Write a sequence for this structure.
C-alpha cells in the first residue's frame, strides 16, 4: 500500500444518505452533489463515480481545478457547475466542455460572452444574487443593467440558474438574516423573471436550509455535508427530529460514509513517573503499555487532539497520550490484552461494538466537521467498500 493509513468509503451508506435527502427534497427538486474541497476530503476521483452509480448526475465544485478533476472522471451525461473561482482565461475551456459557472459581477459576465463568441457556443451561467451574505453576487441596484446586458447578449448566454447562498442557516442565531435573504432572493428572482430573464433552475439551499427552511428548495438543492453523513449542526438535526412527520424516529437517518484506519507500529512498556513523547505533556502515573500509531498531524490528525483524542484498538476507546507528532501519535493500550504489532487501529469509524465519529473528533477540537474532513490529505489511499 505504501501508506501508513487508509480510508474506506461506504457505498451503502452513501446510497442511504442520498435516498433520505432526495425524499426530503421531494420529487421535482434536482439534486446537486457538492464535491468541493476534494469531495469534503473523500476524494473527488473516488467519490464522483460512486455517486454516479448511486444516481447523481449534477456536481457542484468551487473552482476550475476541481471542475477539471471532476470532468476527467465523470460520465458524459453528468453536469459540472463551478460555484466560485474561475479565471477569465479558463472560461473558454468551461464553455467548450458545457461546464456551467457562477457569474456574480459584470466583468465575468463580459468575459463569459467573450468566451461564448470564441467558442461559438452559449455560455451556461448561473447568476448569483447578493441577498445579504455580502460575499459575492449581483446587488439589487445592479438589476436594470444586468437585465439589459443579458438581453443584449442573449444569443451568447444560457441562464441555467439563478442562485444565492445563505449566511449560516445551520444556526438559529441567524434566523432573521436568513428570512431576509429568502425575501430578497424572491424579490430579485421575480424581477428578473418579469423582465424576461427566466432561469431554468432556481437554486438556493444547501444542507441546512433544506431541513430548516423548506421554502428554499425551489428547483434544485446543492448538498454537501449531509450527503457525506453529517448534520450541518446539532440544531439542524434537532429541527429535523421535531418535524411532524418524524415523530417515531429512532435512529439517525444520516450515515457517515468514511472510515479511517491504520495499525499499530510499535509497542512499549513505560514505568510510572516517566514522560511520554515530546516534553512533559504526559507523565505516566502507573506502569503502562503504549502503542505508537503511524499517523500524525501531517495526515490530518489535528495536533489539538494531543492528550485528548481517542482511537479504537480491540474495540476499546483508548486515549492519545502526549503530543500528536507530525507523523506519529501514541496511545495507551494497557487494557487491551493480547495487543500486538499490526493490530488494527480505527481513527474514524467502527470496530466491534464501538464507534468513533468525525463529529466526536470535531467536538474535542471545536472544529466543524467540514474542517476535520477536508484536512484528510489527498495522498491517503481510498477504497470503496459496500
Ligand atoms: C459548500 C456549498 C454548498 C454545500 O454546503 P453544505 O452545507 O455542505 O451542504 C452549497 N452551495 C454553495 C455555494 C457552497 O459553497
Amino acid at each position: 500500500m505504501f501508506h501508513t493509513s487508509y480510508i474506506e468509503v461506504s457505498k451503502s451508506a452513501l446510497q442511504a444518505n442520498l435516498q433520505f435527502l432526495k425524499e426530503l427534497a421531494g420529487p421535482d427538486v434536482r439534486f446537486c452533489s457538492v464535491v468541493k474541497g476534494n469531495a469534503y476530503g473523500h476524494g473527488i476521483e473516488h467519490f464522483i463515480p460512486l455517486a454516479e452509480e448511486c444516481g447523481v448526475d449534477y456536481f457542484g465544485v468551487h473552482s476550475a481545478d476541481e471542475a477539471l478533476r471532476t470532468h476527467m472522471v465523470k460520465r458524459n451525461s453528468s453536469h459540472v457547475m463551478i460555484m466560485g473561482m474561475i479565471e477569465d482565461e479558463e472560461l473558454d475551456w468551461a464553455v467548450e466542455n458545457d461546464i456551467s459557472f457562477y457569474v456574480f459581477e459584470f466583468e465575468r459576465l463580459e468575459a463569459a460572452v467573450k468566451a461564448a463568441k470564441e467558442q461559438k457556443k452559449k455560455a451556461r451561467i448561473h447568476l448569483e444574487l447578493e441577498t445579504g451574505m455580502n460575499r459575492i453576487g449581483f446587488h439589487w441596484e445592479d438589476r436594470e443593467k444586468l437585465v439589459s446586458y443579458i438581453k443584449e447578449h442573449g444569443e451568447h448566454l444560457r441562464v441555467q440558474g439563478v442562485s444565492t447562498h445563505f449566511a449560516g442557516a445551520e444556526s438559529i442565531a441567524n434566523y432573521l438574516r436568513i428570512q431576509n435573504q429568502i425575501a430578497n432572493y424572491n424579490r430579485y428572482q421575480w424581477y428578473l423573471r418579469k423582465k424576461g430573464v427566466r432561469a431554468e433552475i432556481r437554486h438556493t439551499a444547501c444542507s441546512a436550509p433544506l431541513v430548516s427552511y423548506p421554502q428554499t428548495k425551489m428547483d434544485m438543492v446543492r448538498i454537501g455535508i449531509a450527503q457525506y453523513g453529517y448534520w450541518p449542526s446539532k440544531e439542524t438535526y434537532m429541527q429535523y427530529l421535531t418535524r411532524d412527520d418524524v415523530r417515531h424516529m429512532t435512529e439517525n437517518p444520516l450515515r457517515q460514509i468514511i472510515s479511517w484506519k491504520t495499525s499499530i507500529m510499535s509497542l512499549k512498556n513505560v514505568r510510572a513517573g516517566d514522560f511520554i513523547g515530546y516534553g512533559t505533556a504526559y507523565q505516566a502515573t502507573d506502569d503502562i503499555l503504549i502503542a505508537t500509531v503511524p499517523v500524525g498531524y501531517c495526515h490530518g490528525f489535528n495536533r489539538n487532539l494531543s492528550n485528548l483524542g481517542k482511537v479504537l484498538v480491540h474495540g476499546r476507546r483508548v486515549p492519545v497520550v502526549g503530543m500528536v507528532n507530525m507523523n506519529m501519535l501514541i496511545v495507551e493500550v494497557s487494557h487491551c490484552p493480547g495487543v500486538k504489532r499490526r493490530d488494527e487501529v480505527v481513527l474514524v469509524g467502527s470496530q466491534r461494538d464501538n464507534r468513533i465519529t468525525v463529529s466526536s473528533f470535531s467536538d474535542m477540537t471545536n472544529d466543524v466537521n467540514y474542517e476535520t474532513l477536508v484536512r484528510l490529505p489527498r495522498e491517503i489511499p481510498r477504497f470503496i467498500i459496500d
About this structure: The pocket of pyridoxal-5'-phosphate is lined by residues 34, 36, 83, 165, 206-208, 222-226, 232 (CB under 6 Å).
